[in-house]
Design brief:
The protein contains two helices and 15 strands. It is mostly beta strands.
Length: about 210
């Protein structure tokens, strides 16, 4: 009797392991983590004669991003993500800019040229839409501080391409995107001077993905 129970338990454990393994191999979910370097491409960070461009007021950005994806089929995936970005403030014509912090929330999709069920190299295209929260920015001139931008939520759109090398459940990827950010909100103290244009940047992402 005890032997039968032990055999049944072993069979049940074996079937559970096999079932879990099959489910893990067929699961459409994945999670990725990436670091980003974000060169600023264009955009005026103010208005009027002598107003700075974004790359005059801030250095290129560094960021961390987390994304979750659902694979609809072997070549097409839906995703959602969040990133935190920091741009060190620079000095322009004697005016010092504080650091700029941006938080982005977005949804998007990826199209893989090859089946993602296979291991090896796989190029892909992607596009996203979401919102970006600009943190407030101060400026200082000859020891006098003033508000430059107020905190605000703005539109974000991007599109790009990448390549992933997939192992069994682990993947590494590199991608480049062209990204549009709507203009931040001007602080009332600065009137017209701090009214910025929208901006373009070129996020370069290097990351790792875990496939469940």
């Amino acid at each position: 009797m005890k032997r039968n129970i032990i055999v049944q338990l072993l069979v049940f454990a074996f079937m559970s392991i096999i079932s879990t393994q099959v489910f893990a191999e067929e699961s459409p979910f994945s999670l990725s983590f990436s670091g980003q370097y974000i060169p600023i491409v264009s955009g005026d960070a103010g208005k009027g004669s002598g107003a700075p461009d974004y790359d005059d007021a801030f250095d290129d950005g560094l960021a961390l991003a987390v994304e979750g994806a659902y694979q609809l089929n072997p070549k097409f995936a839906l995703l959602g993500g969040i990133s935190y970005e920091n741009y060190s403030g620079d000095k322009h014509q004697g005016i010092s800019f504080d650091d700029l912090d941006i938080l982005t929330l977005y949804v998007g999709s990826k199209y893989y040229f090859l089946s993602r069920k296979k291991t090896g190299w796989n190029p892909y295209l992607r596009a996203d839409i979401g919102v970006a929260n600009f943190d407030s920015v101060d400026i200082s001139y000859m020891g006098v501080k003033a508000d430059y931008w107020d905190s605000s939520w703005e539109l974000m759109v991007d599109a790009g391409a990448g390549v992933e090398y997939k192992f069994d459940r682990l993947g590494v990827f590199l991608e480049v995107k062209a990204r549009y950010l709507d203009s931040p909100s001007s602080a009332s103290d600065m009137k017209e001077f701090s009214k910025a244009d929208s901006s373009w940047s070129l996020p370069i992402m290097l990351g790792v993905s875990f496939n469940f």
